[in-house]
Every structure is written in C-alpha cells, then in structure tokens.
Write a structure and sequence with these properties.
It is built from 15 helices and eleven strands. It is α+β, with helices and mostly antiparallel strands. The strands form three sheets. Strands 5, 6, 7, 8, 9, 10 and 11 form a seven-stranded antiparallel beta sheet that branches. Strands 1-4 form a two-stranded antiparallel sheet. Helix 3 packs across helix 6 and helix 13 packs across helix 14.
C-alpha cells in the first residue's frame, strides 16, 4: 500500500507540473491513476464536451466487401437531415429510414406508379388503392419527400417495438417486406430458433450477405439459403440475389454520425484508457455480463449487435474479441471506422491503411507498447489489446465480455498460434 501511495503521489506531482489541458484529479479513479503511473502514463486526457465523430460503420460485410457505394453514401448524406428529423420524433436511429428508402426506391425522391410512395407503404395505402395513395407518379419536391418520410416514420415507429434493439430492426425489415412462411421455414432449416426465424433471419431481403452461409457469392453458402420471391406471389426455389440484405446495409451504416457528451477518457484517441474504462478488472465475467460502460459504448458507435459465425452459431452482444477491439478503437476516437466483423477483416483493414497502422516486428513482449493490437495468424481467430505492464484487454467469442488481466503473449497453444502486432500511428 505504501508503494501505491508513493506512486499515486508521484503521478499527482508530475501532473501538477504539466501546463497542458490537465483535468481535475477528483474525477480520476485512484486505481486507474495507479495503473497509469505503473505504466508511464503521466497525464489524463479526459474531457467533457459534445463530440461528433464521422464514421460509416466500417462499410463492410463479414468478408470485408464494401456495402455502400460512394454515390449511395452521397445520396444518404443529402437526405440525412430529413431522415433524422423524422426518426428523432419517435426515438429510433435515422439509418432505418435511409435503408428503407434504399431498399424500396434506390434512394431516389420519386413516386412510383403504384401509388405506394417513395417508401412503398403498402398497408398505409392499401396497395396504392385508398385515399392515402401518393400521386402523381413523378419526382418529389423536398417538402413532399419530407412529408412522406414523416408518414413512414410514424407508421414504422409502432410496428415491432423499440428500434434501438437490433432484433427489432431485423423484424421491422422482415415485416416491411412481408413475413413469408417460406423464409421462416428457411431460417429453421438453417438452424435458427423459432423466434429468430420470425425476426427475419431466413429472409434474403433482410439478411442476404450477412455471413458466409447466407452469401450467394461464397463457396460456403448453405444450400438451404437458395430460394426467394422474384416477384409478387412467385417463389423461385433456386434463385439467389447479389443485393445485400437490409440489415447488412443497416449494420454497415449505423453509427455513420454519432455525437455524445463525454466525461471519460474516450474520444481523444486514448486506446489504453478507453479499454480500461470498458473492461472488468478481473477474470471470469461470463458471456452475458458486459460492463455497463461497454454496453453504452457499443450502442454509441454501432457495435451493439449479435455476432454470428458462418455456421449459424451466435454469441451474446459484446462476447466477441473483434467486437470488443472495434468498440475500443471507435469509442476512443483512435479510429472511428475500425471494422467490427472478424479479426481477418480487421487485420486486412490495418494492412490496407499503412498511413494509420504499422505492423511491428517484435521478438519479445518487452518490445510491445501500450495500445498495440495483436491478431492471431491462425485464420485470425483472436484479437486483443496490449495495455502495458504485462496486462491485456480482451473478450472471447461466446465465452466472456471485456476483461483486463495479466498475460501478454506473442504465441500460445504451445507455439501453434502466433500473433502479428499492429500499432496505431499517432
């Protein structure tokens, strides 16, 4: 205890000498200050302000394929204020509106000839036959586009429940397209539960391209994934589509602009302190026990979703190493576009951005620096963060949520698994 008190006093003294933007020590947890002192971190970069970070949710599916084109993102940007205005009235993410606009009329501002409007509101217009019919079939003024967006937001706000829940977002897209029994049967055949099937896991409109087993471009596509409605009332049991499903589009877009008031160490590029904030300080926290700060961070940056593997196995929210590292990188502000799906994709991303990341060749853990990212070379089955001082921060698929504990390694499993090291360039 005497050593701890001495170090805390030393760090406090050093802080007092710093002329730069040092916050009041009263808001620093003593254990965090002690950890920083032990690892040579002698300043606190906390802040309190409204911070807006621009990101695109990674804009990749599980395989690292871009989900939105530049032209589509430009169109969304042009419409975003109208999406936000409508969605904010009902308290759900504006990205829902953007995805429905894309899926129904390709982000164009026009009325199709069927009278169902830019969002194709079949029930609201009774298939375009009642007094709510949208006319004429033509390009829309901004005022009319805003009016239809507000009508659509009101309509969907009570359709399935809270749209801040990812499962309800899936269910909304499924319901919007028509909850066909064919797609429920397909989901069951793929191994999903009855509840998951009714959320749209078997609908190409919702989930096409979400993972390898539901990706027609993948050699690992499950044969049961084939089959879809090619037009109203016509089901082709062998047909597939190359178009990404609505939930894939949503996952790639969600969090494209997020703002938050911060009073913690996140948001200033500090990977280590953000990882500490989001993790338990001991082992054996189960897969269903994420720290509250971790939950809030995932929701803030668009990583609050159920991670699934290509075989249909899914883990609880936050119980996945790739989700954890992505959340830290995004929430800290170190890299708001860091992808959230799979260590392989994440490593490819870092390699493709040498202006942001350098691969570091190290022979001993003593050469690692706090904040280094380690990725397993055995098909990328694990990724974790080095905190310094022999500590790591990590999560594990379907096993544990974010934890920090001693033990940093460049290889494990008897030397059969090795790690590549990447360092964020400041």
């Amino acid at each position: 205890m005497r050593k701890k008190s001495f170090l805390v006093g030393l760090v406090a003294a050093l802080l007092a000498l710093l002329p730069l933007n040092v916050q009041a020590l009263s808001i620093i947890d003593e254990a965090l200050l002690y950890f920083n002192g032990m690892n040579g971190i002698y300043f606190y970069r906390g802040h309190k302000k409204d911070e807006c970070i621009v990101t695109n949710g990674g804009n990749q599916n599980y395989a690292g394929v871009p989900v939105w084109s530049d032209a589509e993102l430009a169109a969304i940007s042009e419409n975003q204020a109208i999406y936000e205005e409508a969605a904010s009235e009902y308290g759900f993410p504006w990205q829902v509106m953007a995805v429905l606009h894309y899926m129904e009329t390709g982000l164009r501002r026009y009325n199709p000839g069927n009278g169902q409007g830019v969002y194709q509101l079949y029930s609201y217009t009774k298939g375009g036959t009642n007094e709510n019919r949208f006319e004429p079939a033509s390009e829309l003024s901004e005022a009319e586009f805003r009016r239809q967006t507000q009508i659509a937001a009101n309509y969907i706000s009570s359709a399935v429940g809270d749209l801040n829940d990812a499962d309800n977002v899936k269910k909304l897209f499924f319901k919007f397209n028509g909850m066909s029994s064919k797609y429920i049967e397909k989901a069951l055949a793929l191994g999903f539960s009855e509840e998951e099937a009714r959320n749209g896991e078997g609908s190409p409109y919702v989930m096409n391209g979400y993972d390898a087993m539901r990706d027609p471009s993948s050699s690992e596509m499950n044969p049961a994934w084939a089959g879809r409605y090619v037009r109203d009332g016509v089901y082709d049991s062998s047909s597939t589509s190359t178009r990404f499903g609505a939930f894939v589009k949503y996952s790639a877009l969600y969090g494209s602009v997020y703002c938050r008031e911060t009073t913690d160490t996140g948001g200033d590029g500090d990977i280590v302190n953000t990882a500490i904030l989001l993790t338990w300080d001991e082992r054996n926290h189960g897969k269903n026990d994420p720290k509250q700060e971790y939950i809030e961070a995932m929701k803030a940056v668009g990583t609050y979703f159920t991670p699934c593997r290509s075989n249909g196995d899914c883990a609880p929210v936050g119980a996945s190493c790739d989700i954890f590292v992505s959340t830290v990188m995004r929430y800290s502000g170190a890299d708001p576009s860091f992808p959230a799906t799979g260590p392989v994709v994440q490593e490819n991303y870092m390699r493709s951005h040498p202006e942001m990341y350098s691969q570091v060749l190290v022979s001993d853990t003593s050469e690692l620096l706090p904040g280094d990212i380690l990725v397993a070379t055995d098909n990328g089955r694990h990724i974790y963060l080095n905190l310094g001082g022999g500590m790591q921060a990590s999560a594990s698929y379907n096993d544990r949520t974010g934890e920090r504990f001693s033990g940093v390694y460049l290889s494990d499993y008897g030397g059969t698994r090795h790690y590549n090291v990447y360092r964020r360039i400041q």
